[in-house]
Design goal:
9 strands, Nucleotidyltransferase, domain 5, elongated, alpha/beta, about 210 residues
Amino acid sequence: MKVVVSSTGKDLNAKIDPRFGRCDCFIIVDTEDMSFVSYDNENKGLSGGAGIQAAGFVVSKGAEAVLTGNCGPNAMTAFSAAGVTVYAGQTGSVREAVERFRTGGIMPLTQANVPEKAGVSTTVGTGAVPTRGIGRCRGGSGRGMGGGGGKRMGGGRGMAMRSGNIPPLPDSGGTPAASRKDTLETLKKQAEELQHQMEAIQTKINSIE
């Protein structure tokens, strides 16, 4: 039986990589004789859809089970459609995970255990947007020295969610209609992208069957 393990390296002694869609490598192991083949994960740097693309790769290799740390909703949907069983929460080495699988010591995952894009690294922006300070501070004694210098760097710690993440929905109170429209268009485009990815996975599944 072929099982795929998300790994940080290319041999059985490598550690489990908990991020299925964005792991460094995939190791396909034959549980009968522990022979294996390793592959680099070419989808780990994608801004979106890494999980579902990785799932398509696994299915194309004829694997019947996946051993990993975490699995998101898109990959789980693809695996469910292809009849591939996912075993999450795995730690230690690739060899240890496969041995646990062989002895029946682990339970399959029935639904995603992390949200979509959980493995995407985020960058916390410094929010270095200058804002005007009140240059003249009038104290009670009339001698307030306005030491603000006229500029103060606002500490806006915006989460710079690059890589095409879904922006937060705008607050309906006082938010321009144009902004809400832009957000809606973005969500529609992302939904369309996901639909195309699912169709690609289904095509691969059909070609294997």
